[in-house]
Amino acid sequence: MTSLTALCIGQPTPFRGEETSAIDKHPVEGRIAIGSLGVAGDAVADPKHHGGPEMAVHHYPHDHYPMWRDHLGGHDLLARHGAFGENVVATGLTEDGVHIGDRFRIGSALLEISQPRQPCWKIEHRFARKGMIKQILKTHACGWYYRVIEEGEAEAGDAIERVEIGHAEWSVARVFAALFDPDDRTTPADLRAIGSLERLCPQWRGKARDLL
Fold first, then answer.
1. Which H/E stretch holds residue 65?
2. CA 90 to chain CA centroid, nearest Å
3. Kind plus residue range of the DSSP H or E element containing 144
């Protein structure tokens, strides 16, 4: 069974010029509350594009770190947890193996996958490397967000237990590829199906409808 390696939080700090970002996250010790808007002590700097109930908790698979070490030729950020601004640090769950709407018990909290993570320029700025977004689009190593179904608490070492499978035909990787990978052979039927996924967040359902 997968276990929680760490929970990471961050506060807005200077990022580029006058812009701030909370992408710089670090592990916290002890039991931490997970509420409807995320992990206690965590924050977002751009509430227009981040945060809220549909993006409450961010999970980026630690399984991808070796790929990034190879792709980037190593990087100091990859030596610690939270390099991609993730709250949940864990190994054993990746985009191909989890689905939109899957529910996980982490500690006493119940979380549900609401959407893939759409990569933005902040990742490349944080690492000071170009080409990372292109690599995410190619590999579908995007990560995902959870909405919180039941608030609770969690700490490093807790089990991450999948208690319900959501839209079993639609892995996080498949939805991400259909909407963002230019090489994916997405059909109108695929877009109609994505647009009707009840557990996919409204914004991504809207993306699918717009592409139709």
1. helix 65-72
2. 12
3. strand 144-150
Structure tokens at 32: 């931490």
- Rounded to two decimals, the pTM is 0.96
Q: How far apart are CA 77 and CA 64, in angstroms?
A: 13
Compute how many other C-beta atoms are within 10 angstroms of the C-beta atom of residue 69.
Answer: 13
Q: pLDDT of 73-92, one tens digit each?
A: 999 999 999 999 999 999 99
pLDDT tens, residue by residue, 89-117: 999 999 999 999 999 999 999 999 999 99
| Mean pLDDT value across residues 151-162 | 98
Which residue bears the tokens 């601004």? 85
CB contact burial 31-65 (16+ within 10 A = b; e otherwise):
bbebbebbbeebbbbeeeebbbeebbbbbbbbebb
Sign of the torsion formed by the C-alpha atoms of 123, 75, 24 and 144: positive
Helix axes 172-180, 202-211, angle to 10 degrees: 40
- Going from the N-terminus, what domains does the chain have, and what CATH number goes with each? 6-167 (2.40.33.20)
pLDDT above 90 covers what percent of the chain?
A: 92
Nearest-CA neighbor of 88 among 32, 128, 138, 149?
Answer: 32
List Cα–Cα distances, 26 to 21, 165, 212, in angstroms.
Answer: 14, 30, 40
